[in-house]
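Researcher: Good morning. I'm working through a list of sequences from a screen, and I'd like to move beyond sequence-only analysis. For each chain I'm collecting a predicted structure so we can compare shapes side by side. This is the next one on the list. No need for commentary yet; just the structure.
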Amino acid sequence: MSHPGAVVIVGDSIAGVTAARELRALGHDGRITLVGADRHGAYSRPPLSKSVLKDDSADSTLSYRLDGLDVEEVRSSATNADLDQKRIATADGHLVDYDALIIATGADARRLAEPGQRGEFVLRTLDDALALRTRLDTADSAIVVGAGFLGMEVASACVARNIAVTVVDVDRPLERILGPYLSTLVTDRAERSGIRFIRTPGHVSLSGNPVRGIALPDGTELSADLVVSCIGETPNTAWLQGTGLADHLGIGIDDTCATAFPDVYAAGDVAYLRKAANRSAFWSNAVAQGRVAAASALGHTPTSAPSDDYFWTEILGTSIKVLGSLPLRGAPSHIDGDPAAGSALLIWNRVSESPTLVAYGIRKPVTRLRTMAASLTL
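Model: Good morning. Structure tokens for this chain:
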């Protein structure tokens, strides 16, 4: 299909907003409808754990502006997609027709709570962040389930508020993605800051209603003023039930962000590249796919890849920027600086792969990292 008259984007995520911007940048002058359910509209999610939990003033800096794009917004959740009639239905009764559809509904936080069990905190939306921040104002102790990026960022917010925090996971912090070398650096720094780590041989459960703690597989119970589950996410595809678009991984796409259905594209955390058979839930990846999906929806050949191997986190005041494929194995092949002091550039050279660069504790712009990576692969 080329030159669609009406493009509907379901999802006010960064992938959806990027797609809307890219459609106009590529010259599309037809109707663009953005369907999104969040009452706050479109906003940036990475600052939720990095800034909002620590600083009330960060709330006003999150919004993605759509000024000048002539985008019609439907502030309601999508409930059904009729792929034959090319029509989206929403919870408030809207029926929105499309010529091209871009699905960017993101993902929902995975939860541990049993049905009806109250008091579990998660962090995926601005409302989640506001609720958690309010609870942090009065808490003296916290348990964070999950030692990934989000879990460590939440634990960092607890430390900043002098809240005693315990992080529970099967693996060491960040080890599944960043490998043992960086995991050791992060763990040592975190323990010096007072974070307690518990490794568990299996899944934990929440105890109490409302939740007052967790139960380990051996029956040991830990209690705290609040429990935050940071155990990943599930693609937001329930509204697509019966369409055949989604499976347990999300929505499968090819390198053009096209799905298995004509004129239907997907981008961001809801999607996965079929050739890789796994989702990569990073902000930069969502931006890349939003651009590709927009170009493909207009019948253009995308000029960029549907993936971007860059992400960053900040743990206990230490910035960690990573450019390149993951997971990391073994020690870096090159070290410039002092990792133990929290300031180093680390490089992992790999056979038959581009190198992975990590700016650990140094404020190096991603553009500089990309230039360095390009020079190393020449």
